[in-house]
Amino acid sequence: MLTIALPKGSLLRDSIDRFQQIGLDFSAFLEPKNRQLQIVDPTNRAKALLVRAWDVPVYVEYGQAQLGIVGYDILREKKPAVAQLADLNFGGCRLSVAVPQTSPHRRSVDLPPHGRVASKFVHCALEHFRRLDLPVEIIPLYGSVELGPITGMSEAIVDLVSTGRTLQENGLVEIEVLFDSSARLIAHPLSYRVNGDRLLDWVEKLRSVI
């Protein structure tokens, strides 16, 4: 049976919608009283695992799921050994550098050498500043990253931005975009090559509804 890793959070509803369009129904995950973390499609052709978004590529890489949906931002940060098959064209956002509105810095390269940057995207942030040949200290934060500059712990943050409203409400301004992100379809490489559980057929069906 085909196993699919679906991400909790903002990508879940659209992910379920994509699979509904190709005849697989995992909408029980959206029911308020649902506590199940694994659901079998009513046709018994596939099952879905409901996992933390950051864990989706882990389940796929280790073969516990043949397919998964995850943000490109997570793929860039974790660099998992998975096959990236398609941009699903939802969940659009961008990974950006932001600073306090009162900051004199309006480009990444303007930040002070050895300054502090708060982010949960530690590797992406390091890569960005290495390309600029600007040494900085990355402070790993996994909650409200905006508090870094607010409390004076960092001069800047690297974080996902969608509408920009959260930045604005916390007195921050976006100064540079590292890359754009959206939901991506990924697969376990070996399963994809051997076409287990008719994996290629499901992938082509998903591509047809993008």
Structure characteristics:
30% strand; 11 strands; five-stranded mixed beta sheet; 8 helices; 210 residues; single chain; alpha/beta; six-stranded mixed beta sheet
Word description of this protein:
The protein is of the alpha/beta class. It contains eight helices and eleven strands. It has helices spanning 12-21, 56-61, 72-78, 122-131, 147-150, 165-169, 189-194, 199-208; strands at 2-7, 38-40, 46-51, 67-71, 83-87, 93-100, 115-119, 136-140, 156-161, 172-181, 183-187. It has a six-stranded mixed β-sheet. A five-stranded mixed β-sheet has the order 8-7-9-6-10. The two termini are 24 Å apart. The mean pLDDT is 96.
Regions with little confidence, pLDDT below 50 for 5+ residues: none
Please provide the ordered H/E string of secondary-structure elements: EHEEHEHEEEHEHEHEEHH
Please give the largest β-sheet: 6 strands, mixed
Q: Estimate the mean pLDDT confidence.
A: 96
Helix content: 25-40%
Cα-atom radius of gyration: 19 Å
